[in-house]
Amino acid sequence: MQRKIILIGNYPPDKQESMERFAQMLIQGFNNKGFETELWRPKVFFGSYVKSTKEGFGKWVGYFDKWILFPLILLWRVHMQRSRYANVIFHICDHSNSPYLRSLPWEKTAITCHDVLAIRGALGFKDAYCPATPAGVVFQKWILGNLENAKMLTAVSELTLNQLKALAIEDFSNKNWKVTHLGFNAEFKLLERERRDSLLRSAGLNPEIPYVLHVGSSRVRKNRTMLVDMIHQLGDRWNGVVCFAGQAIDEGLKNHAAKLGLSDRLISVVRPDHELLLALYQGAEAFIFPSFSEGFGWPLIEAQACGVPVIASNLGPMPEVSGGAALHADPYKPGEFATALLTIRQNEEMRKNLIEGGYKNIDRFGAERMINSYLALYGFQPD
C-alpha cells in the first residue's frame, strides 16, 4: 500500500500566504520522495456569505466554519472511514490549528510549531510583543493546550522549541518533539546587474544611491523605528536611504521620520513580487533585521542566499539562524546597528567573509533536508 501523508492547511479566506507556501512546499517535497500527499483545508460554508472573515461579525462566521464544521468533517472522514486512513500520517501545518488534533488520530498526527509569540503574549510575556484581547487569551490557551498533547511535534528553531517546553504543563518527555529548520520556499538566484538595476528603478530606488533593506510587516516587534533612529545617529557619515519592503510604512513611522527630518530617506515597496524582492536584496548595502521577537526569521537566510551582508538582532533565534554569518546588535540600541553598518562599509574583508559565510550557512536550510527531517519524525524512511 502506498504511503500517504495528509496535510491540514488553513482556512482560505484568511489568506495566510506564508502558511500556504509552506504547505505547497511540503506537498512537492513529499511527492518527490514517493509519498502520496493531500491537502485538507476548512471548507468555506457560511464564510462565503460575508464580506470579510477577518473582522467583526464575519470573523465569528469564519470561526464557525473553522472550529465547528471542519472538526466535524475531520471526525467523519477519519473515524467513519477508518479503514481508508489506516496507513496515513496527518500533519497540521500551522500550530494555530492545533485544536484539530482532537479530531485526528493522536498517535499518527504531527504539528509544526512556527512560533509561540501569540501564546506567550497572551500569557503576559512582554518580550513577545504580541498583546492579546481577552478573547485572544482564551484562544491562545486553547492552542497551547492542544500543542502540549501532540505526540509528534517539530519546531522551526531551538528557541521556539525551548519556549514551548517552558510553557508546557503536560509531560512531553515521552513524546517525539524536535527541531526542523525551515527550508527555502522559492528559488533565490542572482540576477544580471542590468536586470537588477532596472527593477530597482521601477520600485523608486536609484541604484547609484546606497540603501539598506528591511523586509517584513509594520508590527511593533519588527522594530522598524530602529532603522530610522539608526540613520539619524549616523548623520553625515552615511547618506543612503532605508527601503522597507512588505507592508506599507505606517503613519507612526512616517511621523517619527518627519520629526527627525528624515522623511526623504525612507522608501516603501509594498508587497514586491519575487523577482523584485531578489533585486531589493541583491542591491542593498546591507540587510537589517532588528526584530524584538521571531519564531524563525526567514528573511535573514533569504538575504544570505542573495549575497548581501546581514546585520540582525542579537536576540534569539537570529544568531541561531544566521549561523555566525552576520553581525548582531542590541535591537534597543540604534548606535550598535549604526556602528555595524559603518564596519561593513569600511572593512571589505569582513564584508566578504560575511557574504561567503552566508552562502555556507544556507546549506542548512535546504528543502530536501527539511523534508527528510519530517519523514524521520513520522518514522518513515525516504525513498
Number of domains: 2
Q: Please summarize the sheet with the most strands.
A: 6 strands, parallel
The portion of residues assigned to helices is 40-55%
| CATH hierarchy, class of the largest domain | Alpha Beta
End-to-end separation in angstroms reads 15 Å
- The CATH topology of the largest domain turns out to be Rossmann fold
Strand content: 5-15%
The secondary structure category is alpha/beta
Gyration radius over CA: 22 Å
- Corresponding CATH architecture of the largest domain: 3-Layer(aba) Sandwich
String of helices and strands: EHEHEEHHEHEHEHEHEHEHEHEHHH
Number of helices: 14
- CATH homologous superfamily heading of the largest domain: Glycogen Phosphorylase B
On the 0 to 100 scale, the average pLDDT is: 94
Given as residue ranges, the uncertain stretches (5+ residues, pLDDT < 50) are none
Please state how the strands of the largest beta sheet are arranged side by side. Answer: 2-1-3-4-5-6
The backbone outline, from C-alpha atoms, is globular
Number of strands: 12
